[in-house]
Structures are given as structure tokens and as C-alpha cells.
Amino acid sequence: ACLAAGNTVVIKPAQVTPLTALKFAELTLKAGIPKGVVNILPGSGSLIGQRLSDHPDVRKIGFTGSTEVGKHIMKSCALSNVKKVSLELGGKSPLIIFADCDLSKAVQMGMSSVFFNKGENCIAAGRLFVEDSIHDQFVRKVVEEVKKMKIGNPLDRDTNHGPQNHQAHLQKLVEYCQHGVEEGATLVCGGKQVSRPGFFFEPTIFTDVEDHMFIAKEESFGPIMVISRFADGDVDTVLSRANATEFGLASGIFTKDINKALYVSDKLEAGTVFVNTYNKTDVAAPFGGFKQSGFGKDLGEAALNEYLRVKTVTFE
């Protein structure tokens, strides 16, 4: 969107993932984009990111990352030169699975919503709410499918589940699961590092998760399915539980009832709602969060407006 709006761009990739951005810049040169239009600055956020936030020549910052760092960047943008800023921050996206859904599809997409890219996905379903009458069946089917997942080399097309990005994140996931067990959630499967070389973490499922628990409120950014049940037919209660978070990036619903789908999608406090699917974004559809998941849009025509300025010229 930044380039499409006619700007040059400086990209500061995450410190632990610099290579894709550098490869992208290489491809832009091969595609004929002039030198200096796309610029990559790898490095730490505290040094490179801070310098960009403070720099008087930068007029717009778009940031994807944690809410904590987003707040810091927003403050720096204000104090430096009142930079325009858009933020795509943390998420704890609820996925509500009603008893009247297509259960096999809900299992398949529920798995994808959590385990896609090893859970390292900003819109991953952070918490699943499953209606009582299908809860046990849903859990049983998901466990069966998890046991079929092939863990291994992510460059092998037969692999379903690769390693986490780095060791510190792997350790964070281990501690996250320990929190869940200590607070009384039921660890159905997974919860620990795979006993093989590399930063592999087992696909994990928790049930009996209550609203006050750490794992019910905090984002894992890993392959951890957090399941809570809700009473049959109690749509408004599950909605209030799904909305009881300061995050509002994405959400999902599985139901065959179109009226229920429309009602729930209207009431969910999230910038994106998936109905009977998940992770299905489109370049034409605006994407961005509510509340402390940030503001501003990527994708769609709305994204262009983040990188444009409107000027009025009046003649007489």
C-alpha cells in the first residue's frame, strides 16, 4: 500500500526474521523498481526501530507487533514530529463454534486457525468457545487429527508442523503451558518441546479453560489450542465472554444459521470476522484491529489512505 500510494519505503523487519525482507528487496530490483525506493534496515527494535520513530524526516510509521511496543512507538511518533502512525498489534481472537455447524469443517478450520504456521500468526484463534452439546466430540476429533500431524523440516511439503522461530519463543511457550496447568486447565495433549534437534514444540490442546485464567487472556503466538465450553443456546453470554478482552484483531464463527451468523458477527468487537472459514483474507478487504489491537488498515482501498495526504487548493 505504501508503494502503491506513491511513496518510498524503509522496512525494519523483526530482529529474528530479517531474511524474507532482504529477499523481497532483491526481487524488487529484479522486477525493475528503482534503487532507493525499497530500503531494508535489519537490526534491533530498540536501536533501529527507535531511530525511525524519532527521525524528523519520517512522516508515517506502520508497525506490526506487540501492543506494548506499539504504545511506545505511538508515543515516540507524537513526541518527535507528530508522525502519522498505524498499528497492527496483539490479538486473542475468539472462535465460536455452535452446535449447528458443519462439525467436520469446524474441526478442520479450527485446527488451521490455531496451528497454521506453528501458531505464529497475528490472527490465530487465541481461544475457542465450543457449545456444550458438541464439545466432547469436537475435542475428540481434534485430538485425533493432531496425532496425525507430521512434525519436521518446514521445507518438506509433507510437513504439517515446523519449528518455532527461535529458542526464546520456544521457552515462552513451555512457560505458557505451565501457567495453564498450574491454574487448573486440562492439558489434553502436547505442552512440551519435541525431543529432537531444533526449536520444535508439540501441538497443544487445553480444555476446561475458565475466563480468569492466564491462557484465556494472554496471546501465546504458538501452536496452543485453548478451548472453553458454553451452554447450549446461550449466544449473548458467549458473545460477552468473547468480547471481554482488550484485543480485537480477528474472530470467527461456525454455524449453519445465517441469522445467528449475522447477529454474532455484528456484535463481535473485532476488525475481521470469519464465518464458516478462518485465515481467509483478501487483498481487496481492509484488515486491521479494534481496541488495543491497534488502528489503521492494511489491504483494500482503505490501506492506501494510510499513506496519502489530502490537500485542498482553492482558486478564485
Automatic annotation (TrEMBL):
Residue ranges annotated for the Aldehyde dehydrogenase domain, each copy included: 2-313
UniProt-recorded Gene Ontology molecular function terms: oxidoreductase activity, acting on the aldehyde or oxo group of donors, NAD or NADP as acceptor
Active site per database record: 88
Matching Pfam families: Aldedh
Key words of the record: Oxidoreductase
The name this protein goes by in its record: Aldehyde dehydrogenase 1 family, member L1
Family: Belongs to the aldehyde dehydrogenase family.
InterPro entries: Ald_DH/histidinol_DH, Ald_DH_C, Ald_DH_CS_CYS, Ald_DH_CS_GLU, Ald_DH_N, Aldehyde_DH_dom
Keyword ATP-binding: no
Stored SUPFAM superfamilies: ALDH-like
